């Protein structure tokens, strides 16, 4: 069954979320992501005002009001949670550029470990193609620090994650630890891979995301330790040093 799924994933067009994740890890992929931004649609959160009209939502981070937008609806729902009563509109940046406030910063995927801030001028540069000449690596927001703690994953979570890892051919070993970002804890699952096939990673990420969606309060971060080893070796070593190896290929 999973061979059929892998074949389907290889044939399907990559989503803007797939491209975003690849661009964060591989400098060669950033041009592809920046080019796709000009044409692909993004998710913008909206709320109803007192008159019942839908208005674009602004968020405040460190005293600055920003326009959030997302590459995937799940990222938005994890950020806002249900109590915000937020709905999403799907639209290309090209259609919305004239409606966005000129003096506001846009922030892509707030709440994720990797996020990018844009001015309206930078968005315009993406749309007219000039941004391709000067690319910047997506970074963690300024002032963000990672703190590593031993994992508090439940036995039930470990059992389910083990079942998932046993299903996906191409994984070598897996570690769990708690990763704190500005005091916001995530369960970090670091995986060493035997293959660099992005389709295998997409399948693993999708299965773990499905499990997380069905378990309220579980915030997981899936980390490809093999892909990060060359550029973020200290980050990878911290996962190994502080975390626990809960699964390895037999």
CATH superfamily of the largest domain: Uncharacterised protein PF11572, DUF3234
Largest sheet: 5 strands, mixed
Number of strands: 12
CATH topology of the largest domain: Trna Endonuclease, Chain: A, domain 1
Radius of gyration: 19 Å
- Give the CATH architecture of the largest domain: 3-Layer(aba) Sandwich
Structural class: alpha+beta
Number of domains: 2
Question: CATH class of the largest domain, please?
Answer: Alpha Beta
Shape annotation = globular
Instruction: Classify the helix fraction into a percent range.
Output: 25-40%
What count of helical segments does DSSP give?
A: 10
N-to-C SSE string, H for helix and E for strand: HHHEEEEHEHEEHEHEEHEHHE
Q: Can you give the mean pLDDT?
A: 79
Keyword list:
single chain, 250 residues, alpha+beta, Trna Endonuclease, Chain: A, domain 1, Beta Polymerase, domain 2, 2 domains, 5-stranded mixed β-sheet, 4-stranded mixed β-sheet, 10 helices, 12 strands, 37% helix, 28% strand, globular
Commentary on this structure:
By secondary structure, this protein is an alpha+beta fold. The chain has two domains: 16-133, 3-Layer(aba) Sandwich (Trna Endonuclease, Chain: A, domain 1); 145-248, Beta Polymerase, domain 2, CATH 3.30.460. Helices cover 37% and strands 28% of the residues. The protein is built from ten helices and twelve strands. Strands 8, 9, 10, 11 and 12 form a five-stranded mixed β-sheet that branches. Strands 3-4-6-7 form a four-stranded mixed β-sheet. Strand 6 and strand 7 form a beta hairpin. The longest helix is centred in the last third of the chain and has 16 residues, at 198-213. It is globular, with a radius of gyration of 19 Å. The two termini are 21 Å apart. Mean pLDDT is 79; it is low at 135-143.
């Amino acid at each position: 069954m999973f061979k059929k799924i892998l074949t389907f994933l290889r044939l399907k067009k990559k989503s803007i979320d797939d491209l975003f994740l690849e661009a964060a890890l591989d400098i060669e992929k950033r041009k592809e992501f920046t080019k796709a931004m000009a044409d692909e649609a993004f998710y913008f959160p909206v709320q109803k005002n007192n008159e019942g009209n839908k208005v674009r939502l602004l968020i405040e981070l460190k005293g600055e009001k920003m326009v959030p937008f997302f590459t995937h609806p799940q990222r938005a729902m994890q950020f806002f949670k249900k109590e915000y009563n937020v709905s999403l509109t799907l639209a290309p940046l090209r259609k919305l550029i004239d409606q966005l406030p000129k003096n506001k910063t846009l922030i892509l995927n707030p709440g994720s470990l990797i996020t990018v801030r844009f001015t309206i001028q930078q968005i315009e540069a993406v749309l007219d193609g000039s941004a391709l000449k000067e690319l910047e690596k997506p970074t963690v927001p300024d002032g963000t620090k990672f703190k590593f703690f031993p994992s508090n994953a439940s036995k039930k979570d470990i059992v389910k994650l083990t079942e998932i890892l046993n299903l996906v051919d191409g994984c070598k070993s897996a570690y769990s630890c708690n990763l704190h970002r500005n005091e916001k804890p995530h369960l970090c699952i670091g995986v060493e891979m035997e293959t660099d096939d992005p389709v295998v990673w997409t399948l693993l990420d999708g299965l773990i995301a499905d499990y997380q969606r069905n378990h309220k309060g579980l915030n997981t971060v899936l980390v490809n330790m093999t892909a990060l080893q060359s550029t973020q070796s200290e980050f990878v070593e911290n996962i190994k040093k502080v975390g626990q190896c809960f699964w390895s290929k037999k």
